[in-house]
Every structure is written in structure tokens, then in C-alpha cells.
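Title: Comparing notes on inverse folding

I've been comparing how different people in this forum approach sequence design from structure. To keep things fair, I'm posting one structure and asking everyone to reply with a full sequence. Here's the target:
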């Protein structure tokens, strides 16, 4: 969701106005996702390092998140969207924590889209926490504890970093970078990113399919 601040600055508005526009865009993207074949969508709403932002901005982000949950939880139930938050909860305001727990409970049966909001999230901390909770540590057990592998990672706002997001899960993610600021990243941009993803050959370390077929034919 990068670019909220710059989107606002380019219009002579305070950063918080960019975040308000960013939240409005979350609803648009969430609505478009299932029709594009997206079953799991994880949005990086607030990183564990975002606490370093000015107190007023942090507070406004937390309020926007709470408002989003209050507004969208009933709509999510109606639209088959399962809401979940990933990240630490102990540093969140108790009211926001309760809103997250409630949203997760009432949307749990949603199957159209699994919408995960990364809040106070750090990929490195998530790996540590998952590993600490495991009796037996292996790729499989850790992968299962962390969550689904990422197929496509979209970074908006012209940034080209992972910024501690889903580090393990992104092992074989296809990366798409968009210069569009998040509030302007619309359904057409999402469709474009999905198209680019579908055009990629995912080899997972193996050889390209065509080459494999040619090699097999040559060995026959
Ligand atoms: C990135 O833009 C945006 C954020 C760090 C915060 C996004 C979170 C919210 C708007 C809270 C509500 C979230 C949801 C999912 C309902 P930036 O501030 O880094 O912008 P910049 O890159 O232009 O500085």
C-alpha cells in the first residue's frame, strides 16, 4: 500500500488524507480480487517498524483500521470474505484487538476471498514466533505455521524492497513493481499485475518446461 503519503503531498494535502484515500482503495481492490482469480490477498497495513512514524500518524492509521473493520466486517460476511490479521497484537489498543478478534470470528466461514491484514507485522518476527511454537522444525512445519506461500507480490509507489514482508512465504513469489501510488492502484492495475504474473514461467528452480520436453525427446 505504498504511496499514500506522496499521493497526498502531490495534492497539497496532509499525509492522513492519503491514508484515507488508501483505505477507500482497499475496498475497491478487495472487491475486484475474487473475479481476477485471487483467493488470498494480504495487505501490508502497518509494519512493526511503522511505530517509528510520528505519533499522530500512527494514531490516525490505527483509527482508520478500526473504522475499516467496523464498516467492512458486516459487508465481508455478506460477500464471503474471511478477514484475518497477521502480526503482533499485544502492542495494539485493546479496542482494536477486540475488533480484530470479532471480525475474524464472524467472517470465519467466508470462502470467496481470504483477506489478511498485516498489522504490527514483521516477516522476521513471524518466522521466529512460528519456529518457537514448533516441536519439530522443518520446511513443512514452519511453512504451515506461517501461512500460504505467496504467488504474486505487488509493490506500489515505485518501491523495490521487501521491507520485512512475508519473507519466508515469498521464497518463490513473482514480483511486480508498480509506480502507481496506492490510492490510484485500481482494479485495472491489479488485473494488469495478474496478467503479468500469468505470463511468467514459474520454474521453482527446475528447468523451463519447453527445455525439459526437448531434453526428454532428445534422450528418447
Ligand atoms: C504506505 O504509504 C501506507 C501505510 C504505511 C499505511 C497503510 C495503512 C492504513 C491506511 C490503515 C488502514 C489499513 C487497512 C488495510 C484498512 P506511505 O505512508 O508509506 O506513503 P509514502 O510511501 O508515499 O510515504
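Reply #1:
Here's my take.
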Amino acid at each position: 500500500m505504498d504511496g499514500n503519503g506522496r499521493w497526498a503531498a502531490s495534492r497539497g494535502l496532509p499525509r492522513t488524507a492519503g491514508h484515507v484515500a488508501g483505505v477507500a482503495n482497499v475496498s475497491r481492490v478487495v472487491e475486484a480480487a475474487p473475479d481476477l482469480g485471487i483467493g488470498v490477498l494480504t495487505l501490508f497495513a502497518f509494519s512493526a517498524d511503522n511505530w517509528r512514524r510520528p505519533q499522530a500518524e500512527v494514531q490516525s492509521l490505527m483509527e482508520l483500521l478500526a473504522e475499516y473493520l467496523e464498516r467492512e466486517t458486516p459487508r465481508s460476511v455478506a460477500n464471503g470474505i474471511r478477514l484475518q490479521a497477521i502480526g503482533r497484537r499485544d502492542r495494539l489498543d485493546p479496542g482494536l484487538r477486540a475488533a480484530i478478534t470479532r471480525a475474524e470470528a464472524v467472517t470465519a466461514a467466508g470462502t470467496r476471498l481470504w483477506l489478511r491484514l498485516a498489522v504490527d507485522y514483521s516477516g522476521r518476527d513471524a518466522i521466529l514466533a512460528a519456529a518457537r511454537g514448533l516441536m519439530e522444525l522443518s520446511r513443512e512445519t514452519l511453512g504451515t505455521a506461517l501461512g500460504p506461500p505467496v504467488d504474486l507480490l505487488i509493490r506500489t509507489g515505485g518501491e523495490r524492497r521487501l521491507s520485512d514482508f512475508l519473507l519466508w512465504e515469498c521464497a518463490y513469489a513473482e514480483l511486480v513493481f508498480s509506480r502507481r501510488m496506492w490510492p490510484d492502484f485500481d482494479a485495472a492495475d491489479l488485473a494488469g499485475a495478474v496478467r503479468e504474473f500469468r505470463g511468467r514461467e514459474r520454474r521453482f528452480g527446475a528447468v523451463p518446461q519447453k527445455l525439459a520436453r526437448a531434453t526428454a525427446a532428445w534422450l528418447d
